[in-house]
Amino acid sequence: MSLKGIYKNAIVPFAIYWLLPAVLIAGVYYVTIGKFPILLMFTVLAYGLLEEIGWRGFLQEQLKSLPKFTSIVIIAVLWFAWHLNLETTPSNMIFLGIIFFGTWGIGKVYSSTGSLLAVAGVHSLNNFFRNGLHETELTLIAILLVIWIGFIILYNRKYKTSVNPA
Known about the structure:
Shape: globular
Distance between the termini: 28 Å
Order of helices and strands: HHHHHH
Number of strands: 0
Number of helices: 6
């Protein structure tokens, strides 16, 4: 795992997974609030990168010999505890479910791209919306997920055909 992963250089994952969501989210913030959240953008992206160095770059790599479901459960429980959600309240159990599916999804991005920038960008998407999810936030998430998943699929197809021409 590296910043660039399977991409030829780090500019591609930086543009797709960091710059694109930053511009899109900052633009929506500007239209709705009237100012650019530059400090928020930087801290959310940097924090996501630092967390993903540990969660995917280290822990997922260390657990890869285990069955996938087992490693997802271990990472999800540790990630849940990391956020200091130790009580079994209904909202914390919903958060645990989100963490579980986030662990699975970000793990898929990790195994597909090998890029710390990609997994950090996907991780940061959740951190951008710390004031809750509303229609605008859900729309932004859906748009970015469609773009990212489509990009991963298309890039992997192109990469596999260029490496193994028919």
